[in-house]
Amino acid sequence: MAQEDIFNRKKANIKKLIAYGFIKKGDCYFYKRYFFDDAFYCIVEVSDHVACHVYDASFNEEYALIHSSLSKGTYISQVRESYQALLEDIVTHCFDDQLFVYNQTMRIAKWIEDNYHLKPEFPWKTNQHAIYRHQDNKKWITIIMYIERSKISKGEGMCEVMNVKAPPADVDRLILEEGIYECYHMNKKNWVSIILDDTLEDSRIEELLQQSYLLTKSSKK
């Protein structure tokens, strides 16, 4: 399991960090731990994200091989297993589960619940993607996906994306806004995608969600 996957959808609990042994320095919390018979040590830094670095204890130099896919063999595999067990123990004792990866996604999810009294549904086995839909007609208001950033924009790594429905006449104009892209996975004529990394302000996303809600609700007879 990749390091970023271990902390995926987890939120640091400050009280638990301190109880575990993390030390606050400035706005960050640090923790140092030896592992694999003290041959290596790991420094974990927790702020608005988690950074972990592994060092060879004999030389006090960062041990880059632990993250290299080219490094194979019994020894490195055992080191990785020990390192993963260390991180999983930290997650178990210091972090709480959260529904989504990004802080903005969590804020938007709360806004949807407060305004429409809807909770996310996770219809797929991986729980990587969530939908919000109307209770009467079951139409989707939005879908939130955890995908590779390169699928909709420049950049590497994973990102959380929200699709919202828009009037076809507005789509070309909307995708000119920073943070809004051609729709991934759904009809590009009727939907747009938003990366929920705070590029677009919450208030603007809420406006687009309100529009998506209206466009997908049942028509009055």
UniProtKB/TrEMBL annotation:
Pfam families associated with the record: YjbR
A molecular-function term among this protein's GO annotations: DNA binding
Keywords: DNA-binding
Record has DNA-binding as a keyword: yes
TM annotation in the entry: none
InterPro entries with a match to the protein in the record: YjbR, YjbR-like_sf, YjbR/MT2646/Rv2570-like
UniProt superkingdom: Bacteria
Protein's UniProt name: Predicted DNA-binding protein, MmcQ/YjbR family
Organism, scientific name: Sharpea azabuensis
